[in-house]
Amino acid sequence: MGAPRGKTISSQSESSIVTLTSNVANVRTPIFEVLVPRGVVYLLANQNRVRDSLLRGMLMLADLNVTAGTRISGATTLSIAVQGPSDESEKIVRTVPYSPWRDLPIVNQRNDDYKTNIISALDLGEDTGFKLPEAYKLMILAKGPDVIDWTKSYLEIPLFEVN
Q1: What is the mean pLDDT of the chain?
Q2: Domains of the chain with CATH codes
């Protein structure tokens, strides 16, 4: 096995890997699903280096908007979940409010001055993270008063390919 290779999965990735779904207002709904391709193992890291420090938490960039182009409510909760190919339902790993992302444009979320807040908001409770073998799904679920318009929204998760 070689060294892990970084891979960015986003709402703009090909549809064979990422499925985007409009949520139902006030119902926890899967909005973003990553299907791990055949022969691949992804690592969802729970440690990220920012400047000279190793921070515990997952990096996710999110700019979620309604049809009018305004941000969804900061009270919306986002859940990170995984689902194996034989699992009947997803296992929720962590649920957080959208508020740490709401007032930060994507350009700021990429900036080390702001990453600390969004990474620490998503501590997955595992030291290194989760390995996701082929056919597993990584899911982001949303529950809030607003319906996300994917033509005006963006979500990005850096993963590592470890095989």
Answers
A1: 94
A2: 5-161 (2.60.120.1180)
